[in-house]
Structure formats: structure tokens, C-alpha cells
Specification:
Length: 434
């Protein structure tokens, strides 16, 4: 059956959470009661064991934090806290640390961000990956993993372990480093599911389409799962058209333990990892907002052992959806993330516009005063659109240069940046993808 035509099915995360919170019939009040107990227990755990949290809450009357209704009385923590105080957040000894992920700094301090995980923390991630992947994967399916796989305990390694738990067959390749090799692997192994970075998947798709146009037999792909970057709807539509399958999205970051949420078969927002995290959308003062209102996405880990994060502000703009999910689940849904709150440009809108033009695989640029100077990369010449078509589609004054081929950065899983120049001086840069 065509992957797109398959009927909408209830997210498997609901039954998983029912088991995790120990209820026979899953319902939202039971989930919230579980989260409240876990959050209060976690608050006491972190305050007792972590020097950072003891200091952070020294002026907070913790006895007044009695329920989730009181949760927004706690201060937010941010990226800079993790960079500067990460080791003081630890609640276990160094001997209990199983994996450390170091993220390079993109700011001015140069201080890398280090996230610590115990073996139990990584087990929770594998558990989530195992259940989340059954949204689109069946026992016996081959799953091509085009994410980092080399390091034990890394995202690709944990994903592969999760897949094996229900009988799927992981094909651990790693990030795309040679499109000819990856496409040859597609035709040789003919996987049912691919997990990849959005832009690398798009690049692979255009190579694949070339082979199909040359007479190769299409593969019967059921689904693609995109992760690690913002996913433009125009990019998803292109992939769905080329592969004739559903294109799912994963929302996550290292601070979440790599896994955060995944779209169900309805493809309308993310069902979140609610048994392991409590989620909020907050206003600039840190007050929780109701569904439908945009704000900053904030999460609290409920089951993290090594390095709990309590009210961690992600910097991502989002909202909870008001309407029930078409899949039939009572789980809340996080709407598509709208990018970074600190960005001076509507960067997701750039992605949506630029990737709608066939053959575009990447772009970079800089904003000088009120003019956007862009270099757009196409796989090959022969496209039907002209440079002026993209310039007219953009919401600001723009000047474009078109280059053909693959720039080396396409083979690196680094977020694209737009440089911000004011009065001819570089003031900083901002990430295109959240």
C-alpha cells in the first residue's frame, strides 16, 4: 500500500505512556497526576544532590511548590547555565556517568556545552526511540540511519538499539558523505524507512530521482523521519513527491536526551515524550501559556538521573495545539516549531520559500542593513525557475547568486547561519535552523 494512502492510526506513544505511568486506560488527568508526582520528586532530588540547584533555589520557598500549577514560580534555566554550571548540575558521581556529549559554542564565550548521561538515562532514550519508531516502522523493516552512528551511546547507536528491540533491522551508515554511495545503498538494500537530516535527505532525494529518471526501479519506501534541524514543509512535500511516502518529523535536542517528540500518522504536530518530561510554553516572564498561544518551549526532565534539567528554556518558539489530534490520541500536541526567538529574521520562512524551488539543496548568506545577500546552491543546471523568481518570493529586498554542485558543508551536520552585518560591521550570526 502507498505510504501516503495509509489510514491515520493512533500514536503508539499513548499505550507506551499508559504502561510507563501504570494505568490500564490512558487519560490526560492520569498523565498530569503522574507528571506532578515525578516533578516534585525530581525537584527534591535535584535540590538535595546538585550544588547548582541548591544555589538557584536559595531564595525560593520550595515548600510553596506543591503542584504543577506552582511550577512557573520556579526560575527558568538556559543554555548559558548549562555551559557555565553544567558540572554543578550533576546529581551523581563521575563514576556513574556513562556518556558525555560536548557541543561546541556558537557564541562569544567559547565555553562548550557538556551534557551528562548515566546508563539509566540512555536506557530511557532507547525506550522512547523503540516505541516512537513503531509510528512508521514494523518488525522486519530495514531502517537506513543517516545520522551519526560511530560513537557508542550516540544518537544513531541508540536509535539502532531501539529498533532492534522490536525486530527492525538498522542499517547504520552515518551522515551523508557521498551521495552516489548512499543512493547505491538505497537500491541495494531497499529499506522501508530512512532517518536523516532534512537537507541531507533532500540532496539524497535529488540524486535518487536522477537514477529513477535514468531507468532504475523505485524503492518501496514507507516513511522518512527527519531530525536534527528545522524541517520546511516545502522540503517535506518535495520528499513525499519523489519517494511517494509519508514524511515524519522528530523534535529533539541533546538536552532532552536526544529524543523529544515525533509526529504521528496524521503528520500534524508532535506527540511528546510526556512520561519523561513535563512541557510548557511560556511568555517572556516565564509564565505558562495556554494552548494556542505562542511562546518559548520549556521542558523539565522527570526521570533524568545524572543531570536533571528543571524548566530548561530551549529558545525555540512554539505553541500547543488546541484541537484534538486526528489520530485519536488525547495526548497534547506541540505545533511545528517556528524557529528561534532571538533571530532577527523569520528564518523558517526563508527555508519554506527557498526549498520550494526544485533542485535547491542549500543556501547561505548575510543580511547587510536591509538587504539579504544569498548564495543558493543547486545540484545541477536545467531548472525552470530564474534567480528573479526567488528574489520576488522573498519577504525582503534580496540579491541572489546561484552556484551549482555540492559545497563541502553539505556533508557536515552543522546548522546553516545567516551573518548579520550592520553599517558594514559583522555583529553576529544567527542559525537558520532551530
Amino acid at each position: 500500500m502507498d505510504g501516503i494512502a495509509k489510514l491515520t492510526e493512533l500514536t503508539p506513544l499513548e499505550s507506551w505512556m499508559a504502561q510507563k505511568i501504570d494505568v490500564n486506560k490512558f487519560n490526560l488527568p492520569a498523565l498530569r497526576a503522574y507528571q506532578e508526582r515525578a516533578a516534585l520528586t525530581g525537584l527534591a532530588y535535584a535540590t538535595e544532590r546538585s550544588a547548582f540547584y541548591r544555589y538557584l533555589y536559595q531564595d525560593t520557598l520550595l515548600e510553596q511548590i506543591r503542584s504543577l500549577a506552582d511550577w512557573d514560580k520556579l526560575p527558568l534555566i538556559r543554555d548559558r547555565d548549562v555551559r557555565e554550571q553544567g558540572s554543578r548540575m550533576l546529581c551523581v558521581g563521575q563514576g556513574d556517568i556513562h556518556r558525555i556529549v560536548t557541543l561546541d559554542s556558537s557564541g562569544t564565550t567559547g565555553i562548550p556545552k557538556r551534557i551528562f548521561f548515566s546508563r539509566a538515562d540512555q536506557e530511557l532514550t532507547m525506550d522512547f526511540f523503540a516505541k516512537g519508531m513503531t509510528t512508521m516502522t514494523e518488525s522486519g523493516d530495514k531502517v537506513l540511519i543517516l545520522l551519526p552512528c560511530a560513537r557508542p551511546g550516540g544518537v544513531g547507536d541508540l536509535l539502532a538499539a531501539g529498533l532492534e528491540r522490536f525486530g527492525a533491522v538498522p542499517l547504520k551508515y552515518g551522515p551523508v558523505d557521498d551521495c552516489d554511495k548512499v543512493v547505491a545503498l538505497l537500491f541495494r538494500e531497499r529499506p522501508q524507512v530512512i532517518v536523516a537530516n532534512p537537507e541531507q535527505m533532500l540532496l539524497t532525494a535529488y540524486y535518487y530521482r536522477q537514477k529513477i529518471n535514468e531507468g532504475a526501479t523505485p524503492i518501496d519506501l514507507r516513511a522518512i523521519l527527519l531530525s536534527t534541524d528545522y524541517v520546511a514543509d516545502s522540503l517535506k512535500e518535495c520528499l513525499a513527491e519523489i519517494f511517494h511516502c509519508r514524511v515524519h518529523e522528530h523534535y529533539g535536542m541533546t538536552e532532552m536526551g536526544l529524543g523529544g517528540g515525533v509526529s504521528c500518522s496524521a503528520l500534524k504536530g508532535y506527540h511528546l515524550r510526556e512520561a519523561d518530561m513535563y512541557w510548557e510554553v511560556v511568555d517572556p516572564s516565564g509564565r505558562s501559556l495556554p494552548p494556542g498561544e505562542y511562546g518559548e518551549i520549556v521542558f523539565t526532565t522527570l526521570t533524568r538521573e545524572a543531570m536533571p534539567l528543571i524548566r530548561y528554556a530551549t529558545g525555540d518558539k512554539g505553541r500547543f495545539l488546541k484541537e484534538p489530534c486526528p489520530c485519536g490520541s488525547v495526548l497534547p500536541r506541540l505545533d511545528k516549531v517556528k524557529g528561534r526567538l532571538d533571530s532577527p529574521l523569520d528564518l523558517p520562512a526563508l527555508d519554506e520559500i527557498i526549498f520550494a524551488f526544485d533542485g535547491v539543496v542549500d543556501f547561505q548568506g548575510r543580511l547587510e542593513c536591509d538587504e539579504l545577500l544569498l548564495t543558493v546552491y543547486c545540484l545541477e543546471a536545467g531548472h525552470t525557475w530564474q534567480t528573479k523568481d526567488i528574489e520576488k518570493a522573498l519577504p525582503c529586498r534580496a540579491k541572489l547568486e546561484i552556484q551549482y554542485g555540492i559545497r563541502p558543508q553539505m556533508y557536515q551536520l552543522k546548522k546553516r547561519q545567516i551573518s548579520i552585518n550592520r553599517v558594514g560591521e559583522v555583529m553576529g550570526s544567527t542559525e537558520v535552523c532551530g
